[in-house]
Amino acid sequence: MEAQTFIWVVARVMGLASYAALCISVVSGLALRTSVLDFLAKNRALRALHDFTVWLWIPLGAAHVIALLFDNTARIELIDVFVPFQTDYGQLAIGLGTISLDLLVVILVTSWMRRRMNNTLWQWIHRTSYIAFLVLFLHAYLAGTDFDSPLISSISWSAAGGLALLAVSRLFFGRLAE
């Protein structure tokens, strides 16, 4: 396998793995605070899963971005990692990836600073993880051919459906208090 093909494969695999870890993190986090699933609120295993998957998607997402910077096919520049819609092709798909990365960095940094922040402000910032997930889902859907795979497509749509179901139940039945 030639080097550029290897880099392209690494970028795809790391992106998919990071996406999977983030899906688990968002769905498990939402499940922890949805009142219809109140029996899970004190579940240490689910809490540990939510916390652990954050530490999974960070290095996987970083590897995805770094591999794309070296991929001649992707033609991603360093500015494209931070500023959306700058590429000369795939502007929407790649720009959505940049926006999701930017949102996730803000969510991550504020989560680390949670004890020093106003709790209401932190909650509102943390809730943007739903928007970040939606934007990341659209990035994954538009950016490549992986959604053509029945396995990738079924996992992605199932995660999105689970998140939507939990979000709707939380809207109708409420959120558990801290």
Detailed description of the structure:
The protein has helices spanning 3-33, 44-70, 78-82, 91-112, 119-143, 150-173. It is 75% helix and 0% strand. The protein is globular, with a radius of gyration of 17 Å. The model has no long low-confidence stretch (mean pLDDT 87). The longest helix is centred in the N-terminal third of the chain and has 31 residues, at 3-33. It is an all-alpha fold and 178 residues long. It contains six helices and no strands. It has one domain (3-173).
Instruction: Extract low-pLDDT stretches.
Output: none
Number of helices: 6
- Tertiary shape: globular
Overall average pLDDT: 87
- Count of domain modules: 1
Short description:
With 178 residues, this protein is mainly alpha-helical. The chain is built from 6 helices and no strands.
Could you outline the blueprint of secondary structure elements for this entry?
Layout: H1 3-33, H2 44-70, H3 78-82, H4 91-112, H5 119-143, H6 150-173
